[in-house]
Amino acid sequence: MGFISRLREDITTAREHDPAARSNAEIVLAYSGLHAIWAHRLAHRMWAVKPLKTPARVLSQVARGLTGIEIHPGSTIGRRFFIDHGMGVVIGETAEIGDDCMLYQGVTLGGTSLEQTKRHPTLGDGVTVGAGAKVLGPVLIGENSAVGANAVVVKSAPEDSVLIGVPAKDRKRREEEHQPLVDPAAYALDPALFI
pLDDT category, 188, cuts 50, 70, 90? Predict the structure, then answer.
């Protein structure tokens, strides 16, 4: 996928996840989650080149200062990832995030070990993590799962799970919970309203 196509996909993803988005210009200029993701992509490429690891970390820290979102350049992030109201989000070095995932403000994908191993979470495709949630250690959150706000997850969960509580317990996601929490189309302006 080309650079411009990827930017368009990011803007479309923001529009689909945020009913408050009014224009592409607003998204490009004012969405700190998007800015953090763009900075991460560059830092991640730099991280892969040994002599550029320190500059990659410096770039990630500059992005953190500007956006309030800390994404380690070693973390792996899939396509159509969105961070809504990102202040306080922390994504650790060995975290892996699948395609079509979404994080809200205050989320931590953190480690529980000081060893240089896989020590951060893996989120499968389509995972949503609610505001203030903490997902800690090398756990796997299965595809299409949802982590509730302020949950503390320390154990892996199968796909289609809902994780809530401290410590979080998982249960099978009900059919009605597969619907998006917000339908962006419901917020689209109908031109007929202005005639």
Answer: very low
